[in-house]
Amino acid sequence: MSNILIIDDEEAIRASLKEIFEYEKYKVDLAADGLSALEMVREKKYDIIFCDIKMPGMDGLEVLEKFQLLNVDSPVIMISGHGTVETAVDALKKGAYDFIEKPLDLNRILVTLRNASDQSALVQETKVLKRKIQKKLSTDIVGESAAIQDIKEMIATVAPTEARVLITGGNGSGKELVARQLHEQSPRSASPFIEVNCAAIPSELIESELFGHEKGAFTSAIKQRQGKFELADNGTLFLDEIGDMSPSAQAKVLRALQENRITRVGGDKDIKVNVRIIAATNKDLRKEINEGNFREDLYHRLSVILIHVPSLNERVDDIPLLAEHFIKTICEDYGMPLKKIDKDALAELKKVDWTGNIREFRNIIERLIILCPKTIDAKSVKLHANPKS
Description:
By secondary structure, the chain is of the alpha/beta class.
């Protein structure tokens, strides 16, 4: 349901428009002057705004200019009983969506309203798509703690090389982010970054996923299929949770690393590949080797460079920066005004036992944004997060 703001110093006009729009199932707020309207748009997102031009104090054109300064992207429809062609042109030049003269015609209002609603929906959809693209492209590591600075320096040193990297750290700590930064700062950045979550793929399918298969290689292989090694050619292949890879797949990955060649499942032809491997795990691979679950020769092939990503509990000084980052991105995703967080709330967040690391932290911030009216305070953090005992 769309939110409409009506700005007009005449109570009768405000009441008439409110009745019309509520009948059309819109939510309506009213403002009797420009100053009140500016406060309201700071606090709430409106889909469409109707604004009178002739008002005491601040006229409608001044309000329109202030909206531009506040980056209000809602369609603004100007209304006036003293309209001239010059006034209408001036309003449109200043960014108004449309201009309607008084006395107001019901059909004209409804047509303009529906057209503006369509534009508003299109603008919001475009913003969402842009945010999604930016989110995929943006892989900056947030934090200024000593541990994060060390990681950033290591990435800057290692990324330009062809060295294989093994990233270790707990679930949700940001291992994929490190892998993406290694790729983006490398000479391979223009080529694909292909990710495989080894823990999420059944052991009987992992080889087909990595190396592809020939038609008829198994029952459901109805056509030839390229694997991730081929898809990542000239780029980077990120093997996430490699500690969960089956022994058979480990042997084939080792061969691929040694010879830069793969063979599709059910095939006998060697395929040359040029891939940089970055692997990650939340397991102690040394322990897995001792228990016979992981190949030591593969470990040595993968771990030319070791990068350990600390848990959030080990970098609590980064919590204010992380909170600011997630509040901004989540509020943008929801299309809501930026929420504030006070110092006491940040202090409480530092007391939480973040067993789920950054992933859990982001979920808690999202929960607080949804449930807190304006400002995230310490009381809310205590209520919605789990402090250390």
